[in-house]
Specification:
heterodimer; A: 395 residues; alpha+beta; globular; B: 417 residues; mainly alpha; Cytochrome Bc1 Complex, Chain D, domain 2; two-stranded antiparallel sheet; 16 helices; 6 strands
């Protein structure tokens, strides 16, 4: 993928500061390609929609582009669309899944028997489905007991907005994850001694889009509407770029998921409740990272910068990240984890749970790569399991 | 198809075998020969019988597909071996008579929507193998109303005259001066494959014009292109390997099948042996070239070209590229693509208006889609961009008028298949 002007400035500035920027992985493709399944992809046109929309250009490595065209040709494959699994059904002793119950688009309820159930409903819904199905003991934060819902973690976002005197960043020429990043301040890559926090962040220069409704940056203090706002959008749109820090979040006893005691979905099932706030360690880390971002922004030549700090409690209102982790974590002890190292439920051995719900902590990273790797890891184990169904790890 | 022309085959993929319901007769003897059955299955694939003898969402070969012709609707018959509603009571001789003579077991005439003018060339041994395979199908009880044609077209005796004029019964005769491969290809194309049924223009009576064999035709508002070896609009620029790859996988690196040919490839040619596909390709490449000569391309200064170019850059170039080179195995190359330079621009127009989807095969499963653009391009704009494509990057073909687009739009809007 070709990097934009901002990424060039970032790379030069960061390298000059002794840091190690690199093109960050993205699921876009730069040249025509036919994958091992025979599915064909076209070069990305940098249209700047793909972080929130499907790709009509066959340039994003989504399942419908890369896998499903080959999979639907398999005589043994069937997808039932517009259906929602409402629970995993269990045998009388609760130790074996017997299948799933699902509701179709007409609202009719069906039971699908199964020898093996893979829960792949996205990390938050994986947790809810386990809770609704009674698989694994629900987490109780007061007693610090139980496993399903524990270790839920979010991410921190902080950084610096760089406004240039005279630049043309063309933010509309973009792709979802196109950009450059550095890991010098991530994980254990740096000495935490003087800083008083654990964890870290990946620091990124990226433009994901220039879409007219979503993307209209203005300097801090600009009114949110009216002619002054319009003037500011016009003046700022091409001259602003952002340096962002996507930071880790540790898991805490008071951050967890459970079933809501009050609110229910249209099928009468309890909604999932998320109890979460940032803790001091994360605030300290994120704000230290914001200063690092600001240093880079200044070195890039910004006329002015605005530091974006992590202040106040977590809020559901502004978009921050979709990178939810935990709630049904993998581990070595069935008292503190819902799944064994092969993503197999400790309690119901013919249930496997795929997704970032398995992560015990949230790294300062997009989880997709790890989710994919863990899924391959689990599938390899499932091939063994199918030959001889039993718990793959003895508790 | 041009209005006023009466054609028997209005929908390419639904060319119908008008095999009648049988009132009486004992179930015929079952030939129980595995080799024949397997060969028969392959021949039924080569003939693409399933495409016409299957209703949308219906059981394969159980018929019931409504065929719209200028004469009225014709329903395709059930050819599963059900005694009451299918052809369970037919003998092998009955099937041979239908295939070779266009006659029902009782002697009544079939309509040539069932392409017996082609099937007459199929050997008796092949017909028997087809019969053997059809006998193995699960009988499906599915009564199809066969009396949907209005007076006077429901008078089957009228086919006596049609046959006298246009039907030359008789087996395939190999050309001793040609290779065995050429003759195998000729046998498949002229017989079971019945390629000419769609790729040859019709006369006023719905018969293929013998003097313009395989020179292209409009069918179901798609262009069935010239498949002679013509350079301007035929297979002249394609190698034998290109033709084989296209029939086997649904595409070459630069051209992707859509429309009715998508069904033909998915149901039929992708399942045929490579040797037969090669024979077809050799025959089509070696039998000769015929077609209209290329006109001079419109100059870039022509206003239609300038309007068309502006639309192309905004709307088409992201996928097909500014140079018309497309993306290999995904977005067709427009430069030098003979679909763009057919005399009849129907395919080009309808793909712009209603979109399309390319064939999916085991080798090439992606089946990429072209979005429909009819909702935001008016008739003049479609005409301009199509005219631009037909006259850019070395392409040269007659310009397309807004009236032509308007007439086609009325037929295809919303039919993004």
């Amino acid at each position: 993928m070709k990097q934009g002007y901002a990424q060039g400035l970032f790379t030069k500035a960061a390298t000059g500061m002794g840091l190690h920027p690199f093109p960050r992985p993205s699921a876009n493709i730069s040249v025509a390609y036919t994958n091992p399944y025979g599915c064909t992809m076209a070069p990305c046109t940098y249209c700047g929609f793909c972080e929130r929309f499907g790709c009509a250009n066959y340039s994003k490595s989504s399942p419908q582009t890369c896998v499903l065209p080959a999979l639907v040709r398999e005589p043994t494959f069937e997808a039932r669309t517009e259906c929602e699994v409402t629970k995993v059904n269990l045998s009388g002793d609760g130790k074996t899944a017997t299948g799933v119950t699902y509701v179709d688009a007409n609202g009719d309820e069906w039971e699908q028997p199964a020898d093996l159930v893979l829960v792949c409903a996205y990390s938050l819904f994986n947790v809810r489905l386990l809770l609704l199905s009674g698989i694994g003991k629900p987490y109780n934060p007061v007693r610090d007991e139980g496993v399903v819902g524990r270790n839920y973690a979010y991410q921190t976002g902080s950084g610096s907005t760089a406004i240039f005197e005279d630049a043309k960043f063309n933010p509309f020429a973009a792709a979802g994850s196109l950009g450059v990043a550095l890991d010098d301040y991530n994980s254990d890559n740096f000495d935490h001694g003087p800083h008083g926090f654990v964890g870290g962040a990946s620091i990124t220069s990226a433009h994901t889009n220039g879409r007219p409704i979503l993307y209209h940056p203005t300097p801090r203090g600009t009114p949110n509407w009216g002619s002054v706002w319009k003037k500011a959008v016009r003046e700022t749109y091409q001259r602003v770029t952002n340096i962002g820090a996507q930071g880790s979040v540790m898991s805490y006893r008071n951050n967890y998921l459970d079933l809501d005691p009050t609110y229910k979905d249209p099928l009468g099932r309890p909604l999932m409740r998320m109890t979460f706030d940032y803790q001091d360690n994360e605030r300290k880390m994120a704000n230290w990272m914001a200063d690092r971002c600001d240093e880079i922004a200044k070195a890039m030549g910004a006329k002015t910068t605005q530091i974006n700090r992590l202040v106040g409690p977590w809020s559901v209102v502004p978009y921050q990240t979709t990178h939810n982790t935990g709630g049904a974590i993998m581990g070595s002890d069935p008292k503190t984890s819902a799944l064994n190292r092969y993503l197999q439920s400790w309690d119901v051995s013919n249930v496997f749970v795929m997704g970032a719900s398995a992560f015990p902590q949230n790294a300062g990273y997009n989880p997709t790569g790890t989710v994919g790797a863990l899924t391959y890891w689990a599938l390899d184990a499932i091939l063994k399991y199918v030959k001889s169904p039993a718990p793959l790890v003895h508790s | 198809m041009t209005s006023g022309r009466m054609t028997w085959i209005a929908r390419l993929s639904y060319a119908v075998a008008l095999l009648p319901l049988i009132a009486a007769g004992d179930a015929a003897a079952d030939p129980d020969n595995y080799v024949d059955v397997a060969r028969g299955k392959a021949l039924v694939a080569a003939g693409d019988c399933v495409a016409c003898h299957t209703a949308k969402g219906g059981a394969p070969f159980a018929g019931g597909l409504a065929l719209q012709t200028p004469f009225g609707a014709i329903m395709t018959p059930n050819i599963t071996p059900d005694n009451a509603t299918g052809i369970g009571s037919w003998s092998a001789d009955d099937l041979a008579r239908a295939m070779h003579e266009g006659r029902r077991p009782g002697g009544n005439f079939l309509y040539p929507a069932f392409p017996y003018p082609y099937y007459t060339k199929v050997t008796r041994a092949d017909v028997d193998a087809i019969y053997a395979y059809l006998r193995t199908l699960e009988p499906v009880t599915d009564s199809v109303d066969r009396n949907t044609l209005p007076v006077p077209f429901n008078i089957r005796l009228s086919m006596l005259g049609w046959n006298a004029l246009f039907f030359k019964p008789g087996p395939f005769v190999a050309d001793p001066n040609r290779s065995a491969e050429f003759n195998r290809g000729a046998y498949l194309v002229e017989g079971l494959g019945h390629c000419g049924a769609c790729h040859t223009p019709f006369n006023a009576f719905g018969a293929n014009k013998a003097d313009r064999y395989l020179q292209g035709n409009q069918i179901d508002y798609w262009t069935a292109p010239n498949i002679t070896n013509d350079m301007q609009s035929g297979l002249g620029k394609w190698s034998v390997d290109n033709v084989v790859e296209y029939l086997k996988t649904g595409q070459t690196a630069t051209s992707l099948a859509s429309g009715p040919m998508k069904d033909v490839i998915e149901n039929s040619t992708s399942k045929m042996p490579d040797a037969d596909l090669k024979a077809i390709a050799v025959y089509l490449k070696e039998r000769g070239a015929a077609g209209s000569p290329a006109p001079a391309p419109l100059p870039a200064t022509d206003q239609r070209m300038q309007v068309g170019e502006a639309i192309f850059v905004d709307t088409c170039a992201a996928c097909h590229t500014r140079a018309g080179s497309g993306v290999e195995h995904l977005f067709p190359k427009l430069a030098g693509n003979v679909v763009t330079t057919q005399d009849d621009p129907a395919s080009l127009i309808r793909i712009v208006i209603a979109g399309g989807r390319a064939a999916a095969t085991d080798a090439r499963p992606t089946s990429p889609a072209m979005p429909s653009l009819g909702f935001r391009l008016n008739d003049e704009q479609v005409a301009a961009v199509v005219t631009y494509v037909r006259n850019s990057w070395g392409n040269a073909a007659l310009p397309v008028s807004a009236d032509t687009v308007r007439a086609l739009r009325a037929r295809v809007t919303g039919a993004g298949d």
